[in-house]
Design a protein that fits this description.
73% of the residues lie in helices and 0% in strands. It is mostly helical.
């Protein structure tokens, strides 16, 4: 086991906002078979490839790395189990609950205004108390995603924190065997009953790296940019060529997908070195880090829906289609979605710091 040193802490901080940006860009990449079966406009295959790179080539790296860091940080902490639970209640459970309530209210208003078709709260008048609970947790009709779909990773992290004593015990006793069991689950199962396999796999990998002093940053730093980028792009092209989707619309995981994710994570480790070496870039990354969760929570699902509709109209892509309009819609949607969410966070922090920190799960500096 290792304690968290200053260099590792800085490099994790440098990636916080960047990882969130990758996920937001993924959500704005309206790519066939990822977010909809048929695009509402014509799009050349070259443009689809570019958008799939942002969605799959970059966006798919953020969540595994988030769980890896979460496991590593938990294992390197001196906190007792109950202290860790208390901290995560403030940083995860309370924001999760408040944002879910806010979005539930928002969807109800939009439903009453008949603004959005396929509203997730349709029929809410007839829901029982149990219906509310299972939707809050995200376990209804065989569906494992939360009511606010983008918060599933928070639900999974809360469960993993609760199970952390068991996970850490097994990691100490049979780390290799346990890791391969979880990897097999990731390859062949869509869920582990109450969480997604990707959560358990990379959370456990972070714990193992901490317990057995595997310096992942040093490994990445030892590789040249040519080596690490060549490995990443070759893996991406192979994985993209063999990409398939499961029945829930998620990516079907395979061994080469796992290798691709690992190679991409090492690219991000390498990027963290660049960000921390330059004082200006690290200073910017550090300033943006506190806005990470709020920006992410604010951007979807309601704002994302509005932004996509607005950018469809501005670019007239649904009427004319084509490469330029399609790319313009994607870029404009990313700028508006990220920009509005970040500005909202900055404004809220200025006018009501307490509410900002409660919604962000952060701790206000005294």
């Amino acid at each position: 086991m290792v304690t968290l040193d200053e260099e590792t802490s800085k490099r994790i901080t440098s990636l916080r906002f960047l990882l969130m940006l990758l996920v937001m860009i993924k959500h704005n990449a309206i790519v066939r078979d990822i977010f909809m079966h048929e695009l509402p406009f014509y799009e050349p295959s070259a443009v689809t490839f570019i958008k799939e790179f942002f969605a799959n080539g970059l966006g798919e790296l953020a969540v595994p790395l988030f769980f890896f860091f979460s496991g590593y940080l938990l294992a390197s902490s001196d906190d007792t189990y109950f202290t860790a639970i208390k901290k995560r209640c403030r940083s995860i459970f309370i924001p999760y609950t408040l944002w879910t309530l806010l979005y539930f209210a928002g969807w109800v208003i939009l439903l009453e205004l008949n603004f959005v078709h396929g509203n997730p709260v349709e029929g809410w008048h007839d829901w029982s108390f149990f219906d509310y609970i299972v939707r809050f947790a995200g376990y209804y009709n065989g569906y494992i995603f939360t009511f606010v779909g983008s918060f599933w990773f928070l639900r999974d992290l809360m469960i993993l924190i609760l199970l952390s004593p068991i996970i850490m015990f097994v990691c100490r006793k049979i780390p290799v065997c346990f890791f391969f069991v979880l990897a097999s689950a990731w390859f062949f199962l869509q869920s582990l009953i109450i969480i997604l396999p990707v959560s358990a796999l990379f959370f456990t990998l972070g714990i193992i790296c901490c317990f057995y002093k595997i310096n992942f940053l040093k490994i990445a730093d030892s590789l040249s940019w040519f080596e690490i980028l060549a490995l990443y792009f070759l893996n991406y092209l192979f994985y993209e060529k063999n990409l398939t989707y499961n029945s829930n619309g998620g990516i079907h995981h395979s061994f080469y997908f796992f290798i691709f994710v690992l190679s991409g994570i090492f690219v991000l480790f390498k990027v963290s070195l660049l960000l921390t070496k330059n004082e200006k870039t690290f200073s910017l990354a550090k300033k943006l880090a506190p806005y990470t969760f709020f920006t992410y929570a604010f951007h979807t699902p309601i704002l994302l829906e509005f932004v996509k509709r607005l950018t469809f109209r501005i670019t007239a892509v649904q009427t004319y289609g084509g490469a330029v309009r399609s790319l313009a819609q994607f870029v404009l949607a990313c700028i508006l979605d990220i920009g509005i969410s970040l500005v909202a966070g900055i404004i809220l922090l200025k006018i009501c710091p307490y509410l900002f920190y409660v919604l962000s799960g952060g701790k206000r500096n005294k």
